[in-house]
Design a protein that fits this description.
Blueprint lengths: L3 E6 L1 E8 L2 E9 L3 H14 L5 E8 L6 E5 L9 H10 L5 E8 L6 H18 L2 E6 L1 E7 L5 H10 L3 E6 L5 E7 L3 H10 L4 E4 L1
Antiparallel strand pairs: 1-7, 2-3, 3-6, 4-5, 4-6, 8-10, 8-11, 9-10
Helix pairs in contact: 2-3
């Protein structure tokens, strides 16, 4: 399972016109369902009163991968799945594409819709700047006071980040650790008697 993924920097946009129907696409990086909701709401604000807001996203990887698409009122499988297929074909993760359509008065048919939504999504990615990122896991560790220094040192040695330490009533350390070293981190924690409070 890879510890890295490719996604989009900022927001990439595109416009596509087919038989007077106008398609406006926006693509961006997202890392959780809340970010998805915020981005879709933002598109609705920026592209007002469209006939449809169809989108797809892909989060995580391996067994933890989440994929979702919606046709948003278009005929079944004519909008969301083609957008998702574009994300998959590009090998992206933690990525969303929203395509808003203004109906132009001429029916495009299911085949025409598939081609139009796919073309707009592809154009978004062609206009995008991509970057390689690292998957992180959030860990919450209940740690005796005497072990705080050892856990912090281990985390930093493995390229992780200490997000927060709460001292009351018992110390709990919030850590972000790279997916590729997660098993090593677990093993070394167990060797010093530290149990994981939670894993996200």
């Amino acid at each position: 399972m890879s510890g890295e993924y490719q996604t989009i920097v900022g927001i990439a946009t595109a416009k596509h016109v087919v038989k007077k129907s106008r398609f406006f696409g926006e693509a961006s990086a997202v890392n959780n369902p809340d970010a998805v909701k915020r981005f879709v709401a933002g598109v609705r604000t920026r592209i007002r009163q469209a006939t449809h807001y169809c989108y797809a996203y892909r989060l995580g990887n391996g067994d933890e991968k989440i994929e979702y698409s919606t046709d948003a009122g278009e005929p079944a499988h004519s909008a969301g799945p083609p957008i998702l297929g574009t994300i998959r074909a590009a090998g992206l993760s933690n990525t969303i594409i929203v395509v808003a359509r203004y109906y132009g008065g001429i029916n495009l048919g299911i085949g025409g819709l598939i081609r139009a939504y796919s073309a707009c999504a592809r154009a978004c990615l062609e206009n995008a700047t991509l970057e390689i990122c690292t998957f992180y896991h959030d860990l919450y560790l209940k740690v005796p006071y005497s072990h705080i220094g050892a856990v912090v040192t281990l985390c930093k040695r493995l390229g992780g980040q200490v997000v927060n330490i709460e001292y009351d009533p018992d110390p709990i350390i919030a850590i972000q650790i790279q997916q590729k070293v997660l098993e090593t981190f677990h093993a070394q924690l167990q060797s010093i008697g530290i149990k994981i409070q939670g894993l996200q």
